[in-house]
Fold this sequence. Notes:
The chain is α/β, with parallel strands linked by helices. It contains 15 helices and nine strands. The chain has helices at about 25-30, 45, 70-85, 95-105, 115, 180-200, 205-230, 235-250, 260-270, 275-290, 295-305, 310-325, 340-350, 355, 365-375; strands at about 15-20, 35-40, 60, 90-95, 120, 130-135, 145-150, 155-160, 170. The chain has a six-stranded parallel β-sheet, with helices on both faces. Strands 5-8-7 form a three-stranded mixed β-sheet. The chain is globular and about 60 Å long. The model has no long low-confidence stretch (mean pLDDT about 95).
Amino acid sequence: MNDPSRAIELLRPPRIEFGSGTVGTVGRWVRDRGLRRVLVVADAFNAARLDRLELDGGITVFAEVKPEPDLPNLEALLAVALSVDPQVVVGLGGGSAMDLAKLAAVLPGSGQSLAEVVGPERVAGKRSLLVQVPTTSGTGSEAGTRALVTDPATRNKLAVQSVHMLADLAVIDPDLTLSVPPALTAATGVDALAHCVEAFTNRKAHPAIDLYALEGARLVGRWLPRAIADGGDRAARAGLSLASLYGGFCLGPVNTTAGHAVAYPLGTRHNVPHGAANALIFPHVLAFNAPAVPERTALVLEALGLPPATDPAAVFEAAHGWCRGLGCEMRLSAYGVPADDFPAMASEAHAIRRLLDNNPRDVGRDDILAMYHAAF
């Protein structure tokens, strides 16, 4: 862990625009390149404020993005993209919209199916330019090369990773997040935190990423309570947008660990929103991993403004209380997740080796099952 001699690949969008009022950069960037066929991928809410992008010309809008996109949702988008043959795809929304936009920029007309590109670096190439515009502060998808889609038949998330899905332009305008309600602000904020913390407490942790991971956690600790208390606090919104971006920087070369693996079945099997699922699971995994990474666990708590601790019980109480204080729902029963599904959920989570193999402490199926029961 944290060996600076270990090889690491750092990928960033070639152009990142950050700050209040930057969203209009999208239209200028598109016009400067003479692009005429534009496909915007968004949910219904964000499609209604398309004018913020300052686009003109031939714009097609796919406004049917689901909160947890599945294969039918992707197939509907790809059919539109195939008919439009866009020169540029714009993802406008949270991680769901941006993930689907990535796939719409590489799959239509490629001759490749989703099944053929699941996994690392199987995409043949980019078919259109890609612009990403986040409207929440959580996923960091604007900076990454992964896209996740749920297979409704297996209820598993299919992960595609490719350098060809890196945005050509990422525009992070914190003003777009001013309308996010408190509960969603809390959940997405803890999702950003989880990306940073899981990269920091990771078998593949690296000094080149620690810088972003720990500072991202500090940003969440400082600004998330303020953004929840006052959604119009522009400084708080900007701080969270930066934390989310830093979390996205963490995902490519290091990625997440057991926290996301244990949280995934909550969404795929019981429709718990991704951010809310991560918030609920976060204290359990942080405490579980504490014996393996005690110093880093203490630094995480300090970043959140909490007393440093390494004892698992103390770590859990501190992190759980912090999340609960933000207004996060911390009980599986409140989401209607039945205890009799825990064994299947634990088996499903335990099979996500691409994440569990990153965890600093070996996680058994029974360990995951115990977390679900403790969270019930």
